[in-house]
Specification:
Chain B: It comes from Caldilineaceae bacterium SB0675_bin_29. The complex is a heterodimer of chains A (about 260) and B (about 400). Chain A has a single domain, classed as 3-Layer(aba) Sandwich (Rossmann fold). Chain A is about 30% helix and about 25% strand. The longest helix of chain A has 17 residues. Chain B has 3 domains: about 120 residues, Butyryl-Coa Dehydrogenase, subunit A, domain 1; about 110 residues, Butyryl-CoA Dehydrogenase, subunit A, domain 2 (Beta Barrel), CATH 2.40.110; about 170 residues, Butyryl-CoA Dehydrogenase, subunit A, domain 3 (Up-down Bundle). Classes of the chains: A alpha/beta (about 260), B alpha+beta (about 400).
Chain lengths: ~260, ~400
């Protein structure tokens, strides 16, 4: 049983506000690029599954040519191997096309021993679509679990997991293969080890192109306009009062007046 | 335009940089201001740093280390001091002033005995050179070591010792031949719990308040002869070589402070508005930020040069002294300017820059005052100082045998 983990290279969250519309349109970002923070939880879970069940792990990332820093980070954390998918294969396509390319890559890396679990973060900090993993499940024809907070066990070809939903949590059982998006509650991502860093820095990461993958790069949506929201003008109000109760009462009145509560 | 990281460092180094800065931002920065405020040591960071391999980063794997090079030590030092000087000091003292001297000067038996426990963090170590009456003037130290059979009996007091009250291993220097000045000094490895060895904490420091600084008292402490590091009378050379290691970390850490001051000042200057515009648009604020960047660029290059020489096994006392001297003074200037950019807010501990300013004052004093480094550099340039080959030079970094 192999585990594939889907990761994306995104701007450092501290530098996201600096990204300009022109950079976003051209894809030539000046920001420091790192592994999407949500995907670190998926990488950690893949390594944990490897430790628990002895499976092989592979990180897959779709990006521009040479965009492999996030994959190197995953290798340094401890995944066994990494594969890059050249973004050119989707020809500027949308999330649906991206999902198709990633699904094709999952099939491709499973040529030897089949991939039975695909892990992904819940969204990316730049695109924020949160639908890629659903598209991958659809393209592969696999079951999908979302917002998983714990993978309890894998027994007799079935995976038991806990997933959170608004107002509660449930334990579910699904047959393999399955695509899973993980919530941040699932684990605490480890820091790369020095041994992992050495391995990652020496690794040659194969890149899959149009000739390697069977995909339909057609897309249904395209950006027609891109705008950066104006920064919000935040007003600060400090409540004066003789004691905490008095200040709290003023705060409650103000929140009700603003229809917040 | 390529950054210094891309030009001078390998992909491996850049992965180390990201990991170490992530550690600082996630583990150090959320807790360190409160420790500084309360003058408490962040014990909770020790097992985390040990687990990541920081405590033995540039020791060969065969001694339990991470097998990384000296540039990696510099990168980790920079990242840790980006958060706070105290955390970087822990690595500097434990590794550069205790473990590395054993790696450089110790017998094979001493390396195998002492280094694995230090690299794993099972033991925490410090360095006892300075005395109440002997700082820069090392040759005047008063501690005595008298040989009695297969033991030495040590008596004396050490002062301003980082980690004195935290460590359980002590590298101390004492005179075995009192009449011979610097040539009469020997080095010894002591262990907490030995009779006559006591330690305490010094209070009231201006900066590095989240570090432990204290004293070591030795009253007839009996030390097995196998705990002597190097030959009798080699203590001064060992101490000076230790400083070559530690000063490198101090220099690299100071680069981290400058970077922190720039990041915080830029963020503040772009937000804070006076006279109808962000203060970043006022030319005298720009001047301060430009000077910080100038110092950062120079400091990075000096640290890289010293680290590269260390990797090559080339004697680097002059280059390391220059890096320490320049970078600590530059960090003090940067922190001073950062407080100025922040105005009254910078004077409060609501922002980190006042802590950096207090911390940087200690760095221009310890590991050789700026005045000592000034004299050293003058002596090198005037041909009045020459570094003679050591009996035990620090080995060059060799990835094949260190990993």
């Amino acid at each position: 049983m192999n585990v594939a983990v889907l990761i994306k290279q995104t701007p450092d969250t501290a530098e996201l506000p600096k990204v300009t519309v022109a950079e976003a349109e051209s894809g030539e970002l000046q920001a420091t690029m790192v592994i999407n923070p949500w995907d670190e939880f998926a990488v950690e879970e893949a390594i944990d599954l490897s430790d628990r069940f002895g499976c092989e792990t592979v990180a897959i990332s779709l990006g521009r040519e040479g965009e492999i820093d996030a994959l190197k980070h995953a290798l340094a954390m401890g995944v066994d191997s990494a594969v890059h998918v050249d973004e050119a294969v989707i020809d500027g396509g949308d999330e649906w096309a991206t999902a198709g390319a990633l699904a094709a890559a999952v099939k491709k890396v499973g040529d030897g021993e089949e991939v039975e679990i695909v892990l992904a973060g819940k969204m990316s900090v730049d695109g924020n679509s949160g639908v890629i993993y659903a598209g991958v499940a659809c393209k592969l024809g696999w079951d999908l679990l979302v917002n998983v907070t714990r993978i309890v066990d894998i027994v007799d070809g079935k995976l038991i997991a806990e997933q959170a939903f608004e107002g509660g949590q449930e334990t579910v059982e699904v047959p393999l293969p399955v695509v899973i998006s993980v919530a941040k509650e699932i684990n605490e991502p480890r820091y790369p080890s020095f041994m992992g860093i050495r391995k990652a820095s020496r690794a040659t990461i194969p890149s899959l192109g149009r000739d390697d993958l069977e995909i339909d790069s057609s897309c249904t949506t395209r950006w027609t306009d891109l705008n950066k929201p104006e920064p919000e003008d935040v007003q600060v109000r400090i409540f004066e009062g003789a004691n905490v109760e008095e200040k709290a009462a003023q705060l409650a009145d103000a929140l009700m007046a603003e229809k917040v509560i | 335009m390529a950054s210094t990281d891309e030009l001078l460092y390998t992909e491996e180094h850049n992965l180390v940089r990201k990991m170490a800065y992530d550690f600082t931002r996630n583990e150090v920065m959320p807790i360190i201001a409160e420790h500084d405020r309360k003058h408490t040591f962040p014990f909770e960071l020790l097992p985390k740093m040990a687990q990541l391999g920081f405590l033995g980063i540039c020791l060969p794997a065969r001694y339990g280390g991470a097998g990384m090079d000296f540039l990696s030590l510099g990168i980790v030092s920079e990242a840790l001091e980006y958060g706070d000087s105290s955390v970087r000091e822990t690595v500097a003292v434990h590794l550069a002033l205790h473990a590395l001297p054993i790696f450089q000067w110790g017998t094979e038996e001493q390396k195998e005995t002492f280094l694995p426990g230090l690299a794993s963090g099972d033991h925490i170590a410090c360095f006892g050179l300075t005395e109440p009456g002997a700082g820069s003037d090392v040759a005047s130290l008063q501690s005595r070591a008298v040989r009695q059979g297969e033991e030495y009996v040590l008596t004396g007091e050490k002062m301003w010792i980082t980690l004195a009250d935290v460590a359980d291993r002590f590298l101390v220097f004492a005179k075995t031949q009192p009449g011979q000045g610097a040539r009469g000094i020997s080095a010894f490895i002591l262990e907490r719990g030995w009779q006559g060895l006591t330690t305490g904490t010094l209070e009231g420091k201006m900066g590095v308040r989240a570090s432990n600084t204290g004293w070591i008292n030795m009253q007839d402490v009996r030390v097995p002869a196998c705990h002597r590091l190097g030959e009798e009378g080699e203590g001064f050379k060992i101490a000076m070589s230790c400083l070559d290691n530690a000063r490198f970390g101090v220099a690299a850490g100071s680069v981290g402070i400058i970077r922190a001051c720039i990041d915080e000042s830029v963020k503040y200057a772009l937000q804070r508005r006076t006279f109808g515009k962000p203060i970043a648009e006022h030319q005298l604020v720009q001047q301060m930020i430009a000077h910080m960047q100038q110092d950062l660029d120079i400091g990075e290059l000096l640290v890289w040069k010293a680290g590269t020489l260390k990797n090559q096994g080339v004697r680097n006392s002059r280059e390391t002294s220059m890096a320490k001297w320049f970078c600590t003074e530059a960090a003090r200037r940067a922190a001073d300017n950062a407080v100025q950019v922040h105005g009254a807010y910078g004077y409060s501990d609501e922002y980190n820059v006042e802590r950096h300013l207090r911390n940087t004052k200690s760095a221009v004093i310890y590991e050789g005052t700026s005045q000592i480094h000034t004299l050293m550099q003058a002596a090198y340039t005037l041909g009045m100082r020459e570094d003679r080959p050591l009996r035990c030079p620090m080995p060059a970094y060799d990835p094949d045998t260190w990993q």
